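Researcher: Structure prediction, please.
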Amino acid sequence: MGELFRDNSRLVALMSGLFTGIIVVMGAVALFLGELDYPPLFADASSAGMAGQEPGGGEIVPGGDRPQQPQDPEQPEDQGETEQPVYTYNKPDEMKGFYLIPGQDFLTGDTGEEKVKAEIDSVIGRAAGMGLNTAIIQTAGQGGVIYNSSNMPALTTFFDPLQYAISQARAQGMYVYCIYNTMYVGNGEAMGRATGLDAATVNFLREEAGEFVTNYHPDGIFLDEYYNEENTSSYGTYLAQGGGIGYQNYMRSLSRMALDTVADTIRDKAPGMQVGILTDAVWQNKAQNEAGSNTSASWTVLGNGNTDVKAMIEEKKFDFVAVKAFGATGDGVTPFDVVAAWWGSLAKTNGIPMYLVHAADRMGSSSYTGWSANTEMVRQLDNAHKVEGYCGSIFNSMAALQANPGGATDNILKYLGDQTSAQFILTELKLTKPEQTTYTTNEASVVFQGASDPTEKVTLGDKEITTDQSGYFSVSQELKAGLNTFTFAHKGKTVTYNITRQVKVLDKDTVAPTGSVTVDGGMKITVSVSAYAGSSVTASLGGSSITLTETKAEGDDTDKTSTYVKYSGDFTAPEATSSVQKLGTITFSGSYQGFSDTATGASVTVNKKAAIGSGNPVVVKAAQAETFPTDTMNDISSPYCFPLPAGALDYTMGDEIIYRDGSNTYRYYLLESGLRVYSKDISSTGKEAGDNVIQGMTVTSSSSYTDVILTMTQPVTYDASYSSGGMSFDFAYTKTVCGDLSKLTKNPLFSSATWNGTKLTLKFREQDGIVGYKASYNGNTLTLRFNNVPDMSGARIVIDPGHSGPDNGAAGNLAAYPEKVINQQIAKRLYNVLKNSYGSNVYLIDTTGSSKVELATRNSLAEKHNAQLFLSIHCNSAASTTAKGNEAYYFYSFSEPFTDYVNSALYSAMGNANRGSKYGLYYVTRTSHYTSTLAEVGFMSNNSEYNQMLDSSTQQRIAENLAKAISNYFSSIRSRDFDGHGSQSVGAVSQAPVTGVTLDKTELTLAVGATETLTATVAPENAGNKAVKWTTSDKKIATVDGSGKVTAVKEGAATITVTTEDGEKKAECKVTVTAAKVPVTGVTLDQEELTLAVGATGTLTATVAPDNATDKTVTWKSGKESVATVDQKGKVTAVGQGTTTITVTTKDGEKEAYCKVTVTAAKVPVTGVTLDQEELTLAVGESETLTATVAPDNATNKELAWKSSDQGIAKVDGKGKVTAVKEGAATITVTTKDGNKTATCKVTVTAAKVPVTGVTLNQTELELKAGETGTLTATVAPENATDKTVTWKSDKENIATVDKNGKVTAVKEGAATITVTTKDGNKTATCKVTVTAAGVPVAGVTLDQTQLELEVGKSGTLTATVAPDNATDQTVTWSSSNKDVATVNDKGEVTAVKEGTATITVTTKDGSKKAECKVTVTAPPPDPPEPPEQPEPPDQPETPDPAPPSNGETSSTPSDDEQAPEAPPPAA
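Model: Predicted structure follows.
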């Protein structure tokens, strides 16, 4: 039998059979409370467990017809076993549900139809307005149901509330589910919960459920009220049923049978309707069942509810499970996350959805652990989305959502609307800016930025600062010269900044040029320096004064958060002479608000005059050589200068020009053609330019490009210029040109190509109608390749998220969400929109790694992708916290129209301010090869905009708007007015046949994985068709693409062949592939931050990964050598105060790592350290913090290390906190990092402390007269408490004082409270002291007797007289020295007890005056002896009564004592 019961399914089958037998035998056994007209089926409606208890809890359009089992008309009826039908349930992708509860949301009083309908409409309307998509209707209320039933009493008989609620919810597009009470029964007049099952009850449950789903068609049913809790009659019922299967099995079988009956009935009557179960939070605690959850619930579904919901889910009995997860995330008993994870895992494993029911009715309540914060529900929702199996949430109270306690509902709706997330809401103070809390700066102001718990205030000093709905804040503060201290406080936590401002009007690190500069005569020299905004700045050179003004153009080096701005001006060098001229040194002067400053720049030399034609012939060797104006000397790129292609010929003019800017040195040559180029981009050549002839011109187009091909006799230089109407190229060293192409019809970009002298002008079909161009020479043939304006489908677009690696960009209110992260999020969304909605060929630059993606790398990636459009995503920042709005930057004019579209898109998405399109010097925009724009979405330094940019829905809107902007831009400049793609030519365009082809290399060695591009040269130069095809002899060894790029695949040899299309001329290169080079994957530094004093050194160690990398060579560089230098071994030397970044770069792969170096003032060495305690006694478990003081106060490095001699007895943490572990002794030593100075404290650990639990006073009220005293006694509990020390305090010492022993002294009339407080635990007790006016004091007391004699048993009263007669308090007390002899009561009555003496004392209450009386107690007198017996006298004859006496005396009868004794009785 034991083996049988290990199988649940066999157990259920056995129990079902057994109970069928029991039902037959027992008949309609009444297992219920109460009586009805037929055998009772339910408990009394007034008992606990009745209706009205707290409820438990392929896509189809909501409200559609219920799915039906498909029928096959040709299928014969009897087919034996058939497959079970598969239904597509009508359920939301993510449920956002709400309870609709009778008695709470509707049927709240008046049950009239119109009133109830209005209530239902109101609740469903509010829910729809909140974005909720599922109505969960509770079908039973207090005393009845809301649906039509043959057996259950109705809450209203006028109309059908359930049918109306279902129809109204569906009218709002909602899904509808009903909560159905599984074990409820009724007789039409009353209803209640069945407490057992017999045949009649089972039939009732089946009929009721069948009737319900026949009449109503919700999308699903929540089965509820099925628990079978034990009561006093349960075991007796079990025995009455016959017993035998085990009591626990019996109890669990009843709820199981009820659930099976109802669920099977629903499926039978309504195929395809979902049947789910609504369960409480805990199936069973892990402590009671290993399979249970890590909870400590006092009531569990299995243990108390006797329902094995887990087993039924595993047996696929339900289509979903809904869990009443009412514990908060911080609940220690049933924590929300634990409950959700346990049920989610069970649901996912068994392939059903799990919905979580949230306790909306607890929001903002302090009565439930963890529910007081208005962000608790958002945390639950956010955490739920991370749980496997989770498919939605249900709120158990619409009334609570409507009440919006503390803004809790607002937070929920933001979250459900994808406007915010729990990770964006903090619970404590965190400041992200400035990063350091103690530093020195030259800035004039500081911006503090951070986040906090939105429900609590933040103060700066004694003033509350403004925070937004998420608790974010940005505060700008002016800095005065010297130390500035700012303290932020929030929820008991403080953050203090100590910022020392040094006033330096000029930032000497920004002076340009520096060192020595050599220029040509007549050249303008741009001089610049950064100074406080609003400063007056001038420069002088060679006796001439230069006025400097604020520069508006921004570039990669612009710090928008600084109070410094760039000032620049131009100085024109004198004309060159036959000798070199030394002009002297540039000096700068600046003044600001009474402060002044000076700085020194470069020494300037003017080259001697060079004669035209005296220069050397040179050839451009850079692929694209940047050009600069010749009349200005600086290293600022110009949008009016376009690059020259490799191969172009020219002549130098004059000597080399040198320009220094900080640590950077730039070298140039002037060319005779009128251009300035970097010296490194040209080289000497034997070829000379002159008398060039442009023989012919061809304009040809394909779907991607339009090429202008010029056949020339020499590859000469030219000057390119751009206007919105066209582009011109003025050729140097040229004497003759070919004819015009005045009407172009076979390309989409140009309408004509005409000459004016040696200048070729290409007229655009559409204004600003190009998206970049690139020039190249192939021998003497110049190709000007223009990108055609693409359709969005297939457009080659590169998206660049700004910042990467250790460069986080601007800080926001949350440390986890700096600019870099937001840029990535927006860029990713834009990538998805372009790719999925427009079909664009889009490339997203990956900036998510730990290494920095350099600016040059970004442009290289765009070139590699052959971009037509490049968009760099950034967020802005400023020194002002109110700066707001979007802006975007371009460099070349042809990108300006796109920049306008970008700004409009951002403004439409953000709605703050359109700051416009601006010319900028940003590196990523300084290319002519494609349209390029850098966008600043909004300000990280503005709380509101930061919140917007965090919001995922705003990010999505930005992405969609930007994608639309790209599409609109392309449409605005795309021309359709041309006759298709083709070629048009003029002049002596070469049509010569190909005679041969050569490769630049005939042998090539590559490591596996390496690549190299071969260059093919087709002969002759005027060949008409220079197209070539590339092939490899072995793709397994080396591959080659259409551009000649060779990729090594594996070790071996292969031959790469290039073949001309015209004539099939060939050339070959033998490629040898060697073992794979192990490439460098990264580099790290042993320190990410380093602080040094001026003059100190420190060494950084770089680790190249992987260990077996082939080339581990690295180079080192300092960002500011005026702050710190670094040699090629990583040794850092501190030069001047400030911060800089040391960068290590691998030769292979150019991987980088960074260390932030902070240089402080010259080091002050530590001379010693002391502790505040040299000895310390602690009980086991106690802690105390030692305070170390480092000398001198201004020591540079006050870092300390703490150590215990025996951690088994006492341990110490890094802050000096000592914790007693066990009895014994240990020594705590603190050691300074600088100088290894030490101090010690001996710690004695005693037995574990017994904590104080309370304290009481012997009196809680005390009345004294002024001048009187009274003593209070404190009793500390428990008796064995370790520390019973108490302190005493009076709240009004002018009325009553108390000393350390509890002695109270009355001072004057009034009332005061005396409080005793324990040192351990701060337990308190109080006594109310009432002081009355001082009276007439008692002077003495006397007794009316000083001696008193009493017999035993006798009493006497003493009278006390208090003097003086008018004494205020004449109260006296009485006492006996020997109560065994005599006692005295409070009235002075003395009672003799036994022989002896005693002293009776009377004492006055006032003054304790006394008087005494000696009492002598004597024995009582003895009783008299009895007379002897007398014989009975003889009978006397009767005699008459005597006559009265004659003397007048009356006769008397003797007393009893005087009468003769009775005669003894006669003898026997």
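Model: The chain has a mean pLDDT of 86.
Researcher: Thanks, that helps.
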